[in-house]
Automatic annotation (TrEMBL):
Keyword Thylakoid (UniProt): no
Domain Type I restriction modification DNA specificity stretches: 7-185, 295-379
Coiled-coil segments on the chain, per record: 361-395
Entry GO MF terms: endonuclease activity
Pfam families: Methylase_S
InterPro entries: Restrct_endonuc_typeI_TRD, Restrct_endonuc_typeI_TRD_sf, Type-I_RS_S_subunit
Superkingdom: Bacteria
Keywords: Coiled coil, DNA-binding, Endonuclease, Hydrolase, Nuclease, Restriction system
Keyword DNA-binding on entry: yes
Protein name: Restriction endonuclease subunit S
Amino acid sequence: MVGEQNPWHTRRIADLFSVKKSNTLSRDKLNYEQGACKDVHYGDVLVKYGCVLDLASSDVPYITNNDDVTGEYLCDGDVVFADTAEDLSVGKACEIAGASERKAVAGLHTIVLRPQPGLFASGFLGYYVNSRHFHETMIPFAHGTKVTSISSNDLLSLVIPIPPRPEQEAIAKTLDDIDSLIESLEILIAKKRDLREGLAQELLTGARRLPGFDGPWHQVNLQDALELCTETIPVSDIDETTYVGTENMLKDKGGVVSFDKHVTYANVREYLPGDILFSNIRPYLKKIWFADRSGGCSNDVLVLRSVDANLYDSHYCYLVLSRDDFFAFVTNNSSGTKMPRGDKEAIKTYQMAIPKDIGEQRAIAQVLADLDNEIQETERKLDKYKQVKQGMMRELLTGRIRLAQE
C-alpha cells in the first residue's frame, strides 16, 4: 500500500478495443479428445472458466471437423464475453492466455474484444471484467425476458479504467495468488471427498473392517431397522429453522436451509434428533438429512427412526441410505413423470448391510463423521478465501486501495 500515486484514467471501451469475429458452432460440433483448433463456448464461459482461461486446459474442447473452423484466432489478452444467459450472469467473461501455443476461436454466443497492444498487463482485464463494479455498469444494457442478452455495441459504450501498468501487474499478481490458493483448496476437497467415498464404500459393505471388529454382519430389510414415523405436531410448534420441506432440502446430500415461505398446513409430520429425513419427491436429487434438532416436515419428506437404538445405530443407517445405491433403488421404484415419487412399500424392502455389533456400527459412523467434519472445515476455509477475494476485487479494481508500483 502506498500514499500518493499516479491517477487512474478511464476511457470508452470503443476507443481501446476492437471486436473480433467468433463462430456459431453448437456443442455437438465439439469434442474433448482431439482437433486442430479449440473452441471457447459461451456455456463454459458462464459456468466453468475463471477470470483467466489458459487454452492449454483440458476443459477447452476442440472443433471436431476442421472445415467448421471459422472466426478469428484468439490472442493472449483477448476478452471473451458470453453475450447470452438465462439470468443476469450474462456478460460473464474470461481473458485468454496460452494462445501462442494453442489455436482457438470463440464460439456460439460470444463477443471477442481485443485490446490495443501494451495497454493492459496480463490478467488485469480478466479480473476487472468479472468484478461486481463492471458487471453492475453492464447489466442496465442487458435486454430480454426469458433469455438475457447484451450486444457488442453495448459493451463498446462502457468505460474501463487504465491504472498505471505496474499497478495493473501488482493487482493481477495479488488476485492470481489468492486464485491459486482457492484452486489448491478445491483440489484438496475433491481428493478428500474421493477418499471419503471410497472408504465409505468399503466400510459400509464390510469389505474393510476396522481394527478390533471381526463379528458377523447381516442383511436386513429397511423396515427391520427403521420405522416410518407419521406422528404429527401443530404448525405452531415449528419455525423457519425447524420446518423441513422438499423445497429447503438441498440436493446431493447437502442438508437443509431455513424455510423462507409460509407453511400452509395445520399439522406437520414430527421429527426428532437422530431421525433420518428423506425427500420422497424426485429421489434422484438425493435430498437426505440426519436431523440435529426437533421439528416438523411436509408429507413428502419421510421420517425414518431406529426401531431399537441398541441394535441399529441411526447415524450408521443414515450413512447407508446416503449411498447412491439407495437413491437408485428408490428412483427405480418410483411412479410419475414430472414429479416422480418413491414407493413407500418398496422402500421398506431395501436391503441394508449392518454389523450385528452395535459398537462396530458406531465406530464406522464415527470414522466417516470425522472425515465429513474435516471436509466441512476445509470447505469453510474455501468459502472464507472466496469472500476475501471478492473483497480484494472490490477494493483493488476500483482504486479504493492502491498497490505499490515498483
